[in-house]
Amino acid sequence: EAGVAQSPRYKIIEKRQSVAFWCNPISGHATLYWYQQILGQGPKLLIQFQNNGVVDDSQLPKDRFSAERLKGVDSTLKIQPAKLEDSAVYLCASSLGRGGPRGETQYFGPGTRLLVL
Amino acid sequence: AQSVAQPEDQVNVAEGNPLTVKCTYSVSGNPYLFWYVQYPNRGLQFLLKYITGDNLVKGSYGFEAEFNKSQTSFHLKKPSALVSDSALYFCAVRDSYNAGNMLTFGGGTRLMVKP
Q1: Which of A103, A106, B20, B52 has the smallest number of Cβ neighbours within 10 A?
Q2: Does residue A27 sit at the B interface (CB-CB below 8 Å)?
Q3: C-alpha–C-alpha distance, residues A9 and A113, integer Å
Q4: Considering only CB atoms, which chain A residues are within 8 Å of B99?
């Protein structure tokens, strides 16, 4: 079974530029998550999708971050404009998402490492 | 609100010795608890989880964890450490009162196993 796919793996941009990350979840997984992991910290949830609807985006900095999952499969996370403090690893995860997740296991992709100069 | 703490930034252990990585949590309802491992330049790999039932949970690669409700802890253990177990370990919690499946992660503990 293929895991969660993410691209690109690495990205270097200048501050105030824009950047986009792509994620393809495990086949059949209805729930998709984007996390931000700053160096030396644990991952922090940015946004959670159930199919193509947003379940939780309370920690997403909406003035510069946006995410979509238009067809309920793959997803794109965008930052515009980027700031120095956005340097981090952006992790995508997915879970089955069937009928009220009671401690569902989330499976993570390899992440995209972003460096903002 | 849900939170989790990993009090040790690093744990050092000799190969063949038992290891313990500590985790404590705080929730309003019932806790769903997880352990993940992260190797350099890799994503997080699921090790094990506690949802309900037996307090001792067995997971991948010989790891196990013990849920202790009175101490609000979920420590990760392994009877005999391997050098290849050296990695970054994250504990995570989800409160049953949360409608979504949002996980809150601890800051991570680096495990160093020396030959």
Answers
A1: B52
A2: no
A3: 6
A4: 55
Q: What is the pLDDT of residues A53-72, one digit of tens each?
A: 998 899 999 999 999 998 88
Question: Is B73:B22 a contact under the CB 8 Å cutoff?
Answer: yes
Q: Which residues of A touch B41 (CB under 8 A)?
A: 110, 113
Size of interface A-B (CB pairs under 8 A): 66
Contact A109 B43 (CB under 8 A): yes
Q: What is the pLDDT of residues B37-49, one digit of tens each?
A: 999 878 899 999 9
**Under 8 Å between Cβ of A17 and A115:** no
- Which of A21, A26, A37 should one mutate to test binding to chain B, selecting the residue with the greatest count of B CBs within 10 A? A37
User: What letters, b where the CB count within 10 A reaches 16 and e where it falls short, cover B95-114?
Assistant: bbebeebbbbbbbbbebebe
Alpha-carbon torsion B19, B48, A57, A5, what sign? positive
Give the three-state DSSP class for B13.
strand
Q: Which of A1, A50, A29 is nearest to A95 (CA)?
A: A29
> Which residues 1-20 of chain A have a CB within 8 Å of chain B?
4, 6
